[in-house]
Design brief:
By secondary structure, the chain is of the alpha+beta class. It has helices at residues 11-22, 32-41, 85-94, 114-119, and strands at residues 4-6, 44-49, 55-63, 68-76, 104-106. It is globular, with a radius of gyration of 15 Å.
């Protein structure tokens, strides 16, 4: 299957992204309105689409363009998992012109996803850095 790459999503593709998010525990509470705001606030958005233009995979990143880039929301439609779609998505993301020269590309994932990201060159050896989070109120309209 020939996959297309999009950096901006159509309205139908945004609807599909919200649908994909609804199936995952880490994104199931995202409203369409919040997803639209998230897309607008992301520095890089990357979608893989099939021949019909249907969204089958998505990732996004926030970056300063020099030192740090944080990759978020890597998601592949269930029917397309295990066949290399995620690898293709990550390769395209890591080689994106806005990210290619960034010193540290980072992400966080569940332990079972470590082997997948290790194939992309990510490592759990981060000098002992610990993820910290301050949980705020949910976004308005979420």
């Amino acid at each position: 299957m020939q996959l297309g790459v999009r950096e901006a999503l159509s309205e139908a593709q945004i609807d599909r992204l919200v649908e994909l998010y609804a199936y995952e525990w880490w994104t199931r509470d995202r409203s369409r309105k919040a997803v639209v705001a998230m897309l607008a606030g992301s520095d890089v958005t990357l979608a893989l689409v099939d021949e019909a233009g249907e969204l089958i995979a998505f990732a996004r990143a926030l970056t300063d363009g020099v030192f740090k880039a944080m990759i978020f929301d890597v998601i592949v439609a269930p029917a397309h998992r295990g066949g290399g779609t995620g690898d293709h998505l990550m390769h395209r993301m890591l080689e994106h012109p806005r990210l290619r020269q960034v010193r540290h590309k980072e992400l966080y994932c569940l332990p079972e996803m470590v082997p997948f990201y290790a194939r992309q060159g990510f490592s759990t050896d981060n000098g002992g850095v610990v993820l910290m989070r301050q949980a705020g109120a949910p976004p308005k309209g979420a």
